[in-house]
Design goal:
By secondary structure, this protein is mainly alpha-helical. It has helices at about 1-15, 20-25, 35-65.
Length: about 70
């Protein structure tokens, strides 16, 4: 029960940009432990970072070709 409380506290602390990840974690049965919830969240954060960097690279390339 204490472990679930830690997971809930972690999820509540996330900002709204992680609402989808929060919902995904809460839908898992049984609820993952805190370490797993953190790993899922950081994986999502890394994927977003890669996507943003890729878009920036594409935009820079487009500007160079003009």
């Amino acid at each position: 029960m204490r472990d679930e409380e830690k997971v809930f506290d972690f999820l509540i602390g996330l900002d709204d940009t992680f609402s989808t990840v929060r919902s995904q974690i809460l839908s898992v049965d049984p609820l993952p432990n805190l370490g797993r919830a953190y790993a899922i969240t950081t994986q999502e954060e890394k994927q977003r970072s890669v996507a943003v960097n890729r878009i920036s690279t594409i935009e820079a390339t487009a500007l160079l070709t003009r």
